[in-house]
């Protein structure tokens, strides 16, 4: 059974906050809110990451390639790919990670 935690928001950068929706040892689902113009700085990690744009519009850069995504669209970030985003509009992302991001716990 997945551990559930929907109450604890964590600041994740200027204009960005996140909360863990569910997780177990194999996977994690996280809600991330961005204010307009907030920047998810370029980074990489071993985890495969899925992203669903629940609301707003974002410019994502993955391994040097930039594309825009809006509400209802999704993408997959491969393991160790350098990626980041800019919120072109305030919005919310639903991120999935495999395996779980222990650094978020």
Which CATH architecture would you pick?
Sandwich
Q: Kindly report the name of the CATH homologous superfamily.
A: Jelly Rolls
**Strands, count:** 9
The value of Rg in angstroms is: 13 Å
Order of helices and strands: EEEEEEEEE
Overall mean pLDDT stands at 95
Assigned CATH class? Mainly Beta
Strand content: over 45%
How far apart the termini lie comes to 17 Å
Count of discrete structural domains: 1
Shape: globular
**CATH fold title:** Jelly Rolls
Characterise this structure.
- About 0% of the residues lie in helices and about 65% in strands.
- By secondary structure, it is mostly beta strands.
- The protein has one domain: Jelly Rolls.
- Strands 1, 2, 3, 4, 5, 6, 7, 8 and 9 form a nine-stranded antiparallel sheet that branches.
- The model has no long low-confidence stretch (mean pLDDT about 95).
Sum this structure up briefly:
The chain is mainly β and 105 residues long.
Features:
105 residues, mainly beta, Jelly Rolls, 9-stranded antiparallel beta sheet, 0% helix, 64% strand
Annotate the secondary structure layout:
Elements: E1 3-4, E2 10-13, E3 16-23, E4 28-34, E5 39-43, E6 48-62, E7 65-70, E8 74-77, E9 83-98
């Amino acid at each position: 059974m997945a551990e559930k935690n929907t109450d604890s928001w964590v600041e994740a950068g200027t204009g960005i906050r996140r909360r863990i929706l569910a997780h177990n040892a194999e996977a994690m689902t996280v809600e991330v809110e961005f204010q307009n113009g907030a920047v998810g700085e370029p980074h990489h990690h071993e985890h495969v990451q899925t992203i669903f744009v629940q609301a707003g519009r974002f410019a994502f850069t993955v391994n040097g390639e930039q594309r825009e995504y809006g509400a209802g669209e999704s993408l997959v970030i491969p393991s160790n790919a350098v990626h980041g985003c800019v919120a072109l509009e305030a919005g919310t992302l639903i991120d999935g990670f495999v395996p779980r991001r222990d650094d978020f716990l």
